[in-house]
Amino acid sequence: xxxxVTKLVDLTQKNAETIAKQWAKDVxxxxxxxxxxxxxxxxxxxxAKDFYRNFQMMFFHEAPFEQAEEIFEKYAEERYRExxxxxxxVYALILMRRHIWLYAEFQSMFNTxxxxxxxxxxxSRTILMFDYIMYVITRxxxxxxxxxxxxxxxTQ
Amino acid sequence: xxxxxxxxxxxxESKAENIAKQWAKDVxxxxxxPSYHSLPKDMVIEQGINFYRxxxxxxxxxxxxxxxxxxxxxxxxEFYTExxxxxxxLYALILMRRNLWLYAEFQGTFFTxxxxxxxxxxxNRTILMFDYVSYQVTxxxxELAIGDANKRLGTIKTLLIGKGxxxxxxxxxxxxxxxxxxxxxxxxxxxxxxxxTEGLFTHLFYIPIILASIWWGKKGVFVAxxxxxxxxxxxxxxxxGMPFLGDIIRAIMFVVIGGVIGWLMxxxxxxxxxxxxxxx
Lengths: 156, 280
Prior knowledge:
heterodimer, A: mainly alpha, globular, B: 0% strand
């Protein structure tokens, strides 16, 4: 598996800053990520760079789901505290994934026949990782909401 | 819609029921979707079929995003009603996509080099569709949760006379409470000084006591304290020689009722605040 997909993740890692900047530009103007529009650009670029770094770690981990739980629950908590609504956090993630792929396409990474086969593998693996991340983040958001509810109930 | 995705769409459309059945089997046993395990199988399969048929409609629609809503909103509403947590509803969608892809692979839909290229395009197309649906389902779930809370808090909100304690509404509450307290003073004087009786008029005091606690939470208890003191003072001044115990109990009850309602209202306000943070 690793041989097929290394190329994409390496590219993402090496160009994390460029991809993060493109993502930030997108998320700051996209109508489905309205809350990000007023965020500081530097802050969200850093956020995306961290995300891509963590994503690489998770990508090659033996137990990616457990790794996602470890890393991205914290990410969810931070976004929640920043006041990002869940549907916007989800869409920002979708845009992160899209920008990885757009960058790879822009760099004409998969041109030959063999590369096309690799691209299917890469894409499938990337999607799987993002599926895990999305599940973990959504679950954490709802857990925090529930905990806050209970905490408030108990302090009454 | 490009020709390359047509092959996958044809397959999905003709085998929607088969794929939906596979998905239902998966989602009803998967460890990340435990809430689906006890749902009626037919209902789950129906949602799967609806989803897989959406592909064709989206490919023909002028605005695929708008077309996706016809499925997403229904899906969210149905599973929200069944009390399925959002992360499970999203994971079920992920499994829908996975089952679709597994089926296409199993059928050898993309075999040759050209077909492999088509596979990438088809995969991109299905991902885009799932992105729309995931976003819309998440948004709808939140909307439903807020709607639910608003419905439950509706009556109380009316009593709260809008939100916040600022501006005209705040003055309106103070003026209204002032009128209630003046009327309470007149009634106390009339019953104690003129009629020389304890009377039943004290039951009317609960109106300003309850309203004050609803409007100002625990602080509203001061109105109950004021009315309790008014009752006891009136008794001391005008009803000398009459048993005092009845009015003492009434005064204590004013404070207890005012305190309890104020305490409950602060809890409700916190729940309301929580929903505001969810909706932002």
